[in-house]
Structure formats: structure tokens, C-alpha cells
Amino acid sequence: MEAFVLSFIIIFLAEMGDKSQLMSLAFATRYRAATVLLAITVATLLLNAGSVIIGATIAMAHPTDLNQVAAGIVVLGFAAWTMRGEGPDEDDADYERRSGGWALLAIGTACFLAELGDKTMLAAMTLATTEEPVGV
Predict the structure, then answer these.
(1) Rounded to an integer, what distance in angstroms lies between the CA atom of residue 119 and that of residue 79?
(2) pLDDT tens-digit map of 42-54
(3) Contact partners, residue 66, CB within 8 Å, separation at least 6
(4) Which one, of 89, 126, 108, 121, lies nearest residue 14 by Cα?
(5) pTM of the predicted model, to two decimals?
(6) Which segments of the chain does DSSP mark as H helices, in order?
(7) Residue 96 gets which letter from DSSP?
(8) Which of 62, 60, 15, 65 is nearest to 40 (CA)?
(9) Residue 96 has pLDDT above 70, yes or no
(10) Whole-angstrom Cα distance, residue 49 to residue 45?
């Protein structure tokens, strides 16, 4: 339970103001809330499950101290990148209104791809190296 609570708090805080949060808000203006929630839930579940598996595998292969130092360096890199700021994306896809499974697939795929290599993915990997993977 401790791993679950720790993971929840860290990932919750890391998601605040994240690009996936902004994408969720944008998708909610075009699609039904239930479709957006389901797509984002499935995408996040798949991505975080993969992150935990990778993190647990890394924990078995490398010393924990080395993992913690590497994770700290990555988090500091993300902090520097965030402080640098971002301009508007010119490559944003023009999403037209879709119905049924196509909207679910479009939203889920976009959120999954946006989260790849994100700080929450790295946080889940890092937590899985020191905490119980099932709880994470």
C-alpha cells in the first residue's frame, strides 16, 4: 500500500500542467467526456504498466544507488527543460469530430505517444526500481 500511495502522489504532482493534461482538456472540448476518460485511462494504464516492467527489470540488473543517481539527473534535466518553456506547437493535428471507436483510438494513441519519455513515465520506472512493482 505504501508503494501505491507514494506512486500516486508523485505521479499526480508530475502530471500537473503536463502536456497530457492540456491534451485531455482539448479533447474534452471536441469529444464526449466518457470517451476521453476511457481513452486516456487505457493509454495511461498501458504506458505505466510498461514503465513499471522496465523499471523492475532495470532494478534487477543494476545497483539501486546507480538508478537513483541516474533518475535524479533525468529529473533535473526535465526541470531545466520545463523552466526553458515551450512555444506553441505548429505540428498539432487537426482533429475533426469522430464517432465511436475512431475517437477512442485517436485520443488513446495521441495520449500514449505524448506520454512516451515523459517525466511521469520516468517517475514510474524509478519508483519500480525501489518500491514494490505491483503497488507502483
Answers:
(1) 10
(2) 888 888 888 888 8
(3) none
(4) 121
(5) 0.60
(6) 2-15, 19-30, 33-61, 64-84, 101-115, 119-130
(7) P
(8) 15
(9) no
(10) 6
